[in-house]
Amino acid sequence: MFRKRVAPHLALALALPLATACGGGAGADAGGGAKTVTVTVGYQSKTINTVTAGTLLRSLGYFEQELTALGKRDGTTYEVKWQDYATGAPITAQMTAGKIDIGSMGDFPLLINAARGKELKQPTKLVSVTGYNLRGGLNTLVVAPGSPLQSLTDLRGKKVSTSVGSAADGTLVRALEEAGIDPDRGIRKLNQQPSVGASALAAGSADALSQFVAWPGQLAFAGQAKALYDGAELNLPTFHGVTVRAKFADRHAGVLDAFLAAQRRATDHLRAEPVAAAESVAKETGLPAEVVYLYNGANGIATFDPALRSELIDALRKDVPVLKAEKLVSGVDVDAFVDPAPLKRAVRAPDCPRPPAARPELWLKGQETTRSFASPKELLKAVKGADVRAAYVPDAVTGTLWFADRAVWVADGADLRAFVTPAGAHAYIVRHPAARTVSYADALRLAS
Asked: Architecture of 139-234 per CATH?
């Protein structure tokens, strides 16, 4: 049995009696004593590579369907409360207070989740992955459209907004270190929520913004920012995943199984119907569908699969020293945090696909499908004169997909190559002296 319940405003939710507010709280059903279990799911609607455990999953109703089937088997009435947050930090706070049972967040917040859970005797477990990029392309540094800043080295002494403890902050720290800049003293770091940082960038009170999906793409699409640094240049995996309170998982293993089975179904749906999924997420979040598709599309920056890949777990281990240096954790036992058993129990063996090389892709207005191309030049030929909704092109080196009209284009003889950042294009030209940067309009002309 299943009784749908929409989460009230957070303040009201926190004021409820513990047995109701806490996920897993069981009470008597008014109809005659049947047991009721409330499951509280924390998610980030606008962090769109968590959608298979959040926004898309909620809209499809798969978790509720799985719980209905479970209820018919065990005679329990299940209620689901969905709580939406901007970042992973408040989800962790609610989980360690026993008020959220299942949550999704990025790799760095997951480690903080593990550390806080252990400290507060509310241990959590990482049980699945939502979306990932094996090179780190989900995080990007952007600057204002008219900014003179061209590369990381230009950030010395500048004000950079990020969310401390987030995956984007981790990218910022690592990128600065590779550029020879002390992350603590070389810049003026502003610890801000993504929306606040975006406003600061627009107002000129921040020189750059380091954020996670989908903020960089959203700002670039709107013409409010341009990319300065592509996180894929680090060539270190970044991902988002699902964490669960260990006590809840032990007490309600069937509910966790139902969630993971539902996540698997949502993943299958996203892969089979990427345009429809992007439109659905856009409707739920208010984000432009073109931005959602940049990350979640057929050739998107994120690859979706729930498997706990070894590359991703290894990346978590490499993330721990960064968080320790930031004094955000004293240490994390990654092996103890990762629990592959529920996923193995709940769903068939995950696909664990190797992401193919991204291809240029064109989305025309009025079309419910997109078209892929073998080369950027072929994409540009198709764009000219077409009624374009969005055109996407992969970075020539990192493979990170970007909007074709926001990319930096390079002409190298008869070839046309696209780059996410000016620095990426410059590095290519240094190695190929005959190459030159060209405008998007010139690239269209040269392609035809």
From this structure: 3-Layer(aba) Sandwich (3.40)
For 352-389, the pLDDT digits (tens) are: 667 778 999 999 999 999 999 999 999 999 999 899 99
Would 2-133+238-346 and 139-234 be classified into the same CATH topology?
Answer: yes
Q: Write down the residue that tokens 């057929």 correspond to.
A: 298
Residue type, 27: G
Task: List, as one string, the DSSP characters of 372-440.
Answer: E-SSHHHHHHHHTTS-EEEEEEE-TTT--EEEGGGSEEEEETTEEEEESSHHHHHHHHHH-TT-EEE-H
Task: Name the architecture of domain 2-133+238-346.
Answer: 3-Layer(aba) Sandwich (3.40)
Q: What digits encode the pLDDT tens for the residues 411-442?
A: 999 999 999 999 999 999 999 999 999 999 99
Point out the least confidently predicted range of 26-30, 303-307, 329-333, 370-374.
26-30
- Nearest one of 307, 346, 344, 329 to 92, comparing CA atoms: 329
- Please choose, from the candidates 327, 273, 312, the residue with its C-alpha nearest in 3D space to the C-alpha of residue 106: 312
Instruction: Give the predicted TM-score (pTM) of the model.
Output: 0.91
Residues paired with 363 in a beta bridge = 390
Q: Where are the domains of the chain?
A: 2-133+238-346, 139-234, 361-447
N-to-C CA span, the chain = 60
